[in-house]
Amino acid sequence: MPALDALPPWMMPLLAVLAILVVALVVLQGFLPAMRRPSGGRQARARVSAAVARGTDTKRPIAERASAFVEAGREANDALRKPRLAARYAHYAHELAPGDPTVVAFTIEVMRLAKRHVGLERALWLSLDRATDDETFETARAALVTLYDGPLKRPERARVLAKLERAATASE
Fold first, then answer.
1. SS3 readout for the chain
2. Closest among 74, 76, 56 to 65, alpha carbons compared
3. What average pLDDT does range 96-113 have in this prediction?
4. Angle between helix 83-96 and helix 117-130 axes, rounded to 10 deg
5. What is the pLDDT of residue 37?
6. From 164's CA, which of 96, 127, 149, 157 has a CA 20 to 30 Å away?
7. pTM
8. Cα distance between residue 98 and residue 75, in whole Å
């Protein structure tokens, strides 16, 4: 070919090295996902699937379903190292039982890890409304104060919430 004859002599070895590097990159990208998988990933995914199946079973009580989603989220976060998936399961659990102390604590933990600040804000306001005990109310309130002071940058809301106390309901 006349075009190849016009190239400098050092160009052909350089093109060969670049071609080899491109092939190596493509092969390496094919193997990287398999190498990054944590050990025991198959068993962890099976445990997550079983927990999600229990959580979506509408014949079970709501508290049990919420607990199953919390279990799935813990497994996704700890074993699979997927905080966004764990946050999704926390959201499902929170929709089922927004006043449950375990669900509220787990939702706060994983949504912070996944940096789902707006979703956490919504969940915490719902938890404030549906809290059945003072401890859950205080946990949600303190988390909202931290959220407004930190990532959401609303210090005026944080100051108001810091002074907020749960209104005692007089049952007369």
1. CHHHHCCCCCHHHHHHHHHHHHHHHHHHHHHHHHHHCCCCHHHHHHHHHHHHHHHHCCCCCHHHHHHHHHHHHHHHHHCCCCHHHHHHHHHHHHHHCCCCHHHHHHHHHHHHHCCCHHHHHHHHHHHHHHCCCHHHHHHHHHHHHHHHHCCCCCHHHHHHHHHCCCCCCCCC
2. 56
3. 96
4. 20
5. 63
6. 96
7. 0.74
8. 20
Q: What angle do CA 165, 158, 85 make, to 5 degrees?
A: 100
Rounded CA separation 70/89 (Å): 7
Residues in the chain: 172
Q: For 77-101, what is the mean pLDDT?
A: 95
* Token couple for 76: 């996704």
111 class by beta-carbon count within 10 Å (0-12 exposed, 13-18 middle, 19+ buried)? buried
Which amino acid is present at 101? P
